[in-house]
Write a structure and sequence with these properties.
The complex is a heterodimer of chains A (195) and B (480). Chain A is mainly α and 195 residues long. Chain A is built from 8 helices and no strands. Chain B is mostly helical and 480 residues long. The chains are: A mainly alpha (195), B mainly alpha (480).
């Protein structure tokens, strides 16, 4: 997709920059730690490449920032000018969380009464009722998958999921290419050593 | 078993099928009645006969009122008013003011003065004082009386159509009632196109605007166009059979909004999404998201907002079908969501796996040029793509295909060999032209990585990469 090439470049730059920062800080890490760092760098780079246009990216970065270790990394990756914007957006996110929480409480209080009423009608249209429940369950699962999905309604959740899928694709492609390249290099190096 | 969207769509279709013939015929006859007066009674009779077959007629007090004051009671008229009245009862206002305007014109035996029309319009207010609320969804009409109608008589024909019919009792009926008739005549035929274009504009605008959130992202450009295309398609498919009944639907949706704050409904539906159609984007667009209430469905504000939401979701689902592989046949929200979930999960797992792989491949986690530079010095003995390359490619391809989950299988093979060739050629060139590590490292590194990335994206360019073996890093920058 030519439209994602820009995203690809941005992501690659930021990811490598983040990785350099990571490996400059510590020296010896085991595989799991490295993997975590790599993944973290990739996620943050992806989210920042979006430049705070989508809410999942904002949610991802805000989650990463909660961990103090990552703050330096995040700030460096984001850049100074977007830092303020990010803070504002994070504040919005927090308020949005509160709003969502209150909404959920309201829904729960209402849903009980609704369920009492609904005992009659579902029998007539059982298929629709079942379908609705299925959809509900799956939206819940999707909410858990997409970062920041809990604070979204169904419609925006799908929109965010779309965007998230596209960016994940980009991420996977870049990572795969790099992994291939380094692996090939290693193999060629090892073969050279044997030669 | 389809998803929610399917079931709803099925219901809608059934009702429309049931409802349309009557409306269609009425809509068609309406302009003809105004144009050809002599044939009116016949048309009405035919129409009423058909309605008699379709709809059980009930007489109401208003009907009696009509009969007593306005018309010499004839069988045709009774029949006409019967079905319309029952239609009114069932689905809100079936524009009896419009009908009343129709009949006087058609049946010249009745007084056709504006006073009569006004009276008829006032009589039609039996369905309550909800006419003021009828205007609500049509933006500023409520505040500025009939002015918006005057300003935009042709832009939203069915709005003016409805607004007039219902405004006349509340506003200055005498002045405006000639207008509705004219509006009807002028726009009755345009109602179909205007309605479809309007709804197309509206929903396309919504889709465009809601896609505005993605505007900054690169994918948004392609996806926005796609969505608007799908929207217009969707609208043309779905809206055109409904435009004759749109007026009634508008009435349906408008009627129960009696006590509510006029703007709260539309705001609610728009506020749910956190966005509104920006009025500046198109002069014809309203400030609120318009909803077509379908006949027979609940018309309270909650369900209307729900329907808006559902329709948007189904639009998104169509877009998702293109995005998520293997979803072209799948319909229904639940299954689509399932596919999306699976895809997202698999992509996330891929990321985890690749990061693990990178962690294992790079023991020192040096993803910078230094590590690669150290390796390239050993690699300088290698030719651009010697026999070793092919040997390397084979086991590597097998390895790759095992690892690839979704799409990486076959293209991954190509990518790996390309990447290898690219890396080799790049490193050769770098070693050839490498002089000052400090300045050149970042630029060549970026270019190299970008080329690696683009090798994966554009497998057609490996040929050009072969030539890089002889180029200097300066030429690398010129690569796209």
């Amino acid at each position: 997709m030519h439209t994602s090439s820009k995203l690809t470049k941005e992501f690659t730059k930021k990811w490598l920059k983040g990785l350099q920062i990571c490996c400059s800080s510590k020296k010896d890490m085991d595989v799991l730690e490295r993997k975590k760092k790599i993944k973290l760098c990739a996620d943050i780079a992806l989210a920042s490449a979006k430049n705070a246009t989508t809410s999942w990216s904002i949610a991802l970065i805000s989650e990463a920032k909660k961990n103090d270790e990552n703050e330096i990394l995040v700030d460096n990756l984001l850049g100074p000018e977007s830092r303020f914007k990010q803070q504002n957006i994070i504040r919005q996110m927090n308020s949005c969380h509160k709003r969502v929480r209150s909404k959920k409480i309201l829904k729960k209080s209402c849903s009980i009464s609704q369920r009492m009423k609904k005992m009659g009608p579902p029998k007539s249209n059982l298929a629709a009722y079942i379908a609705k429940r299925l959809v509900k369950k799956r939206t819940q699962v999707l909410q858990r998958l997409v970062p920041g999905g809990e604070s979204m309604d169904e419609f925006s959740l799908i929109k965010e999921a779309l965007d998230y899928i596209l960016s994940l694709r980009v991420q996977v492609d870049v990572m795969r290419n790099l992994a291939n390249a380094t692996e090939v290099l290693n193999q060629s190096n090892s073969s050279n050593v044997f030669d | 078993m389809g998803g929610e969207g399917e079931i709803d769509g099925g219901n809608r279709d059934d009702e429309q099928m049931h409802y349309n013939p009557m409306v269609d015929s009425f809509d068609h006859t309406a302009p003809t009645i105004w144009d050809h007066h002599p044939t009116n009674s016949q048309n009405l009779g035919a129409f009423c006969d058909m309605n008699m077959q379709n709809i059980a007629t009930t007489s109401s007090s208003s009907l009696g009122f009509y009969k007593g004051n306005l018309f010499a009671p004839t069988r045709n008229l009774d029949a006409c008013w019967g079905p319309t009245d029952s239609a009114v009862k069932r689905g809100g206002m079936f524009f009896p003011p419009g009908a009343s305007a129709v009949l006087p014109h058609g049946l010249s035996q009745f007084p056709t003065d504006s006073g009569f029309i006004e009276r008829a319009a006032r009589l039609s207010s039996f369905s309550g004082g909800s006419f003021e609320n009828v205007i609500i969804p049509f933006g500023n009409v409520h505040e500025s009386g009939l002015n918006p109608y005057r300003n935009r008589p042709q832009v939203q024909p069915q709005e003016g159509f409805v607004g007039n019919g219902f405004k006349s009792p509340s506003g200055d009926g005498s002045k405006e009632t000639p207008l509705p008739v004219d509006c009807l005549t002028d726009d009755g035929r345009q109602a179909k196109q205007g309605g479809s274009s309007f709804s197309g504009n509206n929903l396309a605008g919504e889709a465009e605007y809601s896609g505005g959130g993605d505007e900054n992202s690169n994918e948004g450009l392609g996806s926005k166009k796609r969505r608007s295309d799908q929207d217009t398609e969707y609208n043309q498919v779905k809206r055109s059979p409904q435009t004759p009944s749109e007026i009634t639907k508008n009435n349906n949706e408008c009627q129960p909004k009696g006590e509510n704050n006029p703007s709260s409904v539309a705001n609610k539906s728009s506020g749910k999404h956190g966005k509104q159609v920006s009025p500046s984007s198109d002069a014809q667009k309203e400030e609120y998201i318009h909803v077509r209430a379908r006949r027979g469905q609940a018309t309270n504000s909650h369900s209307l907002a729900e329907r808006v939401r559902r329709e948007k979701i189904s639009e998104r689902m169509k877009f998702l079908q293109d995005l998520v592989p293997g979803c072209s046949k799948v319909t229904g929200k639940a299954v689509m969501l399932d596919e999306i979930i699976n895809y997202v999960q698999s992509l996330q797992r891929q990321v985890e796996f690749l990061s693990m792989k990178l962690a294992t491949v790079n023991p020192r986690m040096d993803f910078n040029l230094e590590g690669l530079m150290a390796k390239e010095s050993m690699e300088s003995r290698l030719g651009p793509s010697g026999s070793l390359g092919t040997d390397m490619a084979m086991p590597y391809a097998l390895n790759q295909s095992q690892m690839a989950i979704m799409q990486g299988g076959i293209p991954g093979v190509g990518r790996s060999s390309d990447a290898r060739r690219t890396v080799n050629s790049h490193l050769m060139s770098i070693s050839g032209g490498f002089k000052d590590p400090a300045s050149q490292v970042p630029s060549t590194w970026d270019d190299e990585l970008h080329n690696i990335v683009q090798m994966g994206l554009h497998p057609s360019t490996p040929i050009s990469s072969q030539n890089l073996g002889s180029t200097t890093p300066g030429h690398l920058k010129a690569e796209p």
